[in-house]
Every structure is written in C-alpha cells, then in structure tokens.
Amino acid sequence: GAVVSQHPSWVICKSGTSVKIECRSLDFQATTMFWYRQFPKQSLMLMATSNEGSKATYEQGVEKDKFLINHASLTLSTLTVTSAHPEDSSFYICSASWGGNTDTQYFGPGTRLTVL
Amino acid sequence: KQEVTQIPAALSVPEGENLVLNCSFTDSAIYNLQWFRQDPGKGLTSLLLIQSSQREQTSGRLNASLDKSSGRSTLYIAASQPGDSATYLCAVSGNQFYFGTGTSLTVIP
Fold first, then answer.
1. Which residue of B has its CA nearest to A40?
2. Is the bond into A8 cis (omega within 30 degrees of 0)?
3. Radius of gyration of chain A from its Cα atoms, rounded to whole angstroms
4. Least CB–CB distance from B97: residue in A32, A42, A93
5. Cβ atoms of A30 and A100 closer than 8 Å
6. What value does the CA radius of gyration of chain B take, rounded to a whole number of Å?
7. Tens digits of per-residue pLDDT, A12-46?
8. Among chain A residues, CA nearest to B39
C-alpha cells in the first residue's frame, strides 16, 4: 500500500524560531499533498493544498507567509512554521494523493509541534 | 496497532433516503473520533468531532454516535441530497491519527 512519512514525529522549539516539517510519499508519486492541523480537543482542519510545482492554495484564515509550503518534487512537500509562537503548538498531519482516476489520500503519521 | 474499518465501502441511495455509515476501531483508548467528508481532488472537510467522553454529536442533518466500549461509531445522514455525494472518512485520534478506508456515497437524484 501507499506509504506517507513525516519527519520529525515531534519537535519542541523556542518561540521565534522556524520549524520545518517534511512529508514524503515513499512508494508513489504524489501530485497533490494536503496539510492539516489539529489543536487540542478540536477537529482536524485543512490548512492548505499543494500541487507539485505550483504555489499552495491556503484555506481562509491560514497565513501563507507564516506557514510556508513547498512541493518541489512528486515525493516531497515541506511545511515551515516561521517565527513560531506558542499558539502554533499543534498536531500537523499531511496527506498525499497521486490524482488521476483515484482521489484516495494517504496520510502521514503526523508531527506534534510544541512551541515554548 | 489501531485498525479502523468502514462499512460499506460504497453506497448508492435515492435522494431523500436516510442512511447510516459505519466505522469500527479495534483499540478503545482514543481521545476522539472524527467524521470527514472528502470531495474529489479536495482536502478533507471536518463534519463532526466526538470527544471520547461524549456519545454523540449533531450538526444539521448529520448525527454521529460513539460507543467506545464496542469500538463503533455511526454517521447518520437524514434526508440525503445529491450534494451529499462524496467519500466519508472516519478517523480516531490516539497518539496519532488512524483513518478508515472510507465509504463512497452516491445520492441519486
């Protein structure tokens, strides 16, 4: 089956620093990747959609300059949380889809970010 | 390891019918359970979130129940509409997310 990995699985950083989270499709080419986040006791919410080679489409309320998404290859997308604040502490999860005739999304295991 | 199963894999109903989607999970040690909707080529849309201490949640024509002891959740859709056609996913949250395989729903006008 299709496998998606995320790295790191958890990270603790100081306020004001930047953190990069990687999402990789290990055994398939992902034309589309999605980034989600979940705050404690809240629903998992879509942040942005990225297609390989083009700019990400951000959901309303998500700051594109704060959450930088790069999808430079068909197997890798990165989410960089810039100038992190404690309120950015959350669980971030990506999913990947190879498009075509199927829209199945394959999810990574997630990254738990804690900003001190 | 947590396993999440959804039955049926696909469902086709005429408009106006009430329907039930099923989700089962093997490990009852969860923080919450969520139901999502996925439209073709789009990210997931969160429909309902049930905390582990709750038994059900309602939003409009949607009602989701949770029975942790039996490892089951159901999503009830009342008076289905063609616009409800989509894939519905459930996911349980423990130390990480575990997603079900989805139910593809088609509502026929």
1. B31
2. yes
3. 13
4. A93
5. no
6. 13
7. 999 999 999 999 999 889 889 999 998 877 888 89
8. A103
Read off the pLDDT of residues B33-60 as tens digits, 9 standing for 90 and up. 999 998 887 888 889 999 999 999 999 9
With 80 as the cut, is the pLDDT of residue A100 above it?
no
Phi, psi angles (nearest 5°) of residue B68? -65, -40
For A74-81, what is the mean pLDDT?
Answer: 95
> Strand order in A4-7's β-sheet?
A4-7, A19-25, A76-81, A67-73
Kind plus residue range of the DSSP H or E element containing B35: strand B32-38
- Interface A:B, Cβ pairs < 8 A: 45
- DSSP string computed for A61-116: T--TTTEEEEEEETTEEEEEE-S--GGG-EEEEEEEE--TT----EE---EEEEE-
- Nearest-CA distance A41 → chain B (Å): 7
Q: Name the band, by pLDDT with cuts 50, 70 and 90, for residue A84.
A: very high
